[in-house]
Design a protein that fits this description.
The chain is an alpha+beta fold. 60% of the residues lie in helices and 15% in strands. The protein has 2 domains: 4-143 and 269-360, no CATH class; 152-233, no CATH class. Strands 1, 2, 3, 4, 5, 6, 7, 8 and 9 form a 9-stranded antiparallel sheet that branches. The two termini are 20 Å apart.
Length: 361
């Protein structure tokens, strides 16, 4: 068993190295993103470098969150290699501490870091990303392109049946629509009517279409000053409907998924993101096991460069596999539970097996 003094020493070393790697990579991302945004906004009048620096700062945490597993991998490998080069791990082995003993601190750090990144860092990152998306829309238009299409679709279930509403644009609070076109289907799925209007407004429980024209199959179209349609959707749900799952804070994912499914929308993306975040601590643990399997070789045996590249390659393969399986889950080919947890579980088992074979085999 590892003693408290050695455990604390190793924990500090691992935490410092992982933190340094994370800050270094995040800083590089910030510099590159800042320069790119300066280039893209060079022809936009009234946009200062300070404002772009603030904009880029809001964007960095969401990107940094995606590279956290690599930070754990690189930080763990760097720490193990340093401790091996300075013979500190050799001394630990000499006094009877096995590889499983001095793996306890990095595994604990990985688990704690994963939990902290989910319950603390992710909500902050999502809030900053949402603010950055608002600024990006103001500067470049929807999807980051000037004068791009800002139209949106709204789907709802109500007493009138299923309704699909296409609007040219929605107000920031989600209560007003520009040039809405509503397609109304009865509960049996039969098309009933199409409603066109220059403007629409959402009141509690009802849509109001001003100067509307109603077109129904087999009937003459007619115009009316005001047309009312039952609504089972709130302004917040309209605004949130355009939010990607990775921009939703961890604590809001269950409620947003339930709301989307209650409105007849697909909540697979939110369910997948929720389980992906839950599996993140285990993914970090897998990265530690992979790093240990590729970085505990004694320097005098040689092959250090090959070992480092092998660990980086294994981490990259795991990252690609995680994204690939996640895409399968998002497409509905795998259940969100399997898509989110299987890469971390398989990688942890493979890392533990490699260590068993290397140390005890």
């Amino acid at each position: 068993m590892i003693g408290w003094t050695l455990a604390r020493y190793l924990s500090v070393r691992f935490l410092q190295t992982i933190g340094a790697v994370f800050l270094m990579i995040s800083g590089m991302i910030y510099v590159v993103d800042f320069i790119e945004l300066l280039r893209r906004t060079g022809d936009i009048p009234g946009v200062s470098a300070g404002y772009i620096a603030y904009f880029s700062f809001l964007r960095v945490p969401s990107v940094s969150e995606q590279i956290m597993p690599f930070c754990v991998l690189f930080g763990t490998m760097a720490t193990f290699l340093t401790l091996t080069r300075t013979l500190e791990l050799l001394v630990a082995r000499a006094v009877g501490v096995s590889v499983w003993g001095f793996l306890v601190p990095p595994l604990a750090i990985a688990a704690a870091t994963g939990i902290g990144s989910v319950v603390l860092f992710n909500p902050v990152s999502a809030a900053m990303k949402n603010r950055a998306d608002v600024i990006e829309t103001q500067l470049f238009g929807r999807n980051g392109k000037k004068n791009d299409d800002t139209s949106l679709w709204i789907r709802q279930q109500s007493v009138d049946g299923e309704v699909f509403i296409k609007a040219a644009q929605a107000s920031a609070d989600g209560t007003k629509l520009s040039s809405p076109v509503a397609y109304v289907y009865d509960p049996a799925g039969t098309f009933e009517q199409r409603i066109e209007a220059p403007a629409g407004k959402l009141w509690p429980g009802v849509w109001q279409f001003d100067k509307a024209r109603v077109i129904a199959p087999g009937e003459e179209s007619f115009a009316t000053d005001v047309y009312l349609l039952a609504a089972r959707i709130s302004p917040d749900e309209i605004v949130q409907g355009a939010i990607a799952p990775d921009a939703v804070p961890f604590w809001d994912l269950p409620s947003l998924r339930a709301t989307a499914e209650a409105e007849g929308l697909d909540g697979t993306g939110y369910r997948l993101q929720f389980h992906t975040l839950l599996a993140r601590p285990l993914l970090f643990i897998a990265m530690v096991l992979i790093a240990a399997a590729f970085s505990l070789r004694f320097f005098r045996f040689g092959g250090i460069a090959k070992m480092i590249f092998g660990g980086v390659g294994a981490g990259f393969v795991l990252y690609v596999a995680t994204k690939f399986v996640g895409d399968l889950g998002g497409a509905g080919l795998l259940s969100p539970l399997v898509a989110a947890w299987s890469p971390a579980v398989v990688a942890s088992l493979l890392g533990a097996f490699a260590l068993l074979n290397q140390e005890d085999g």
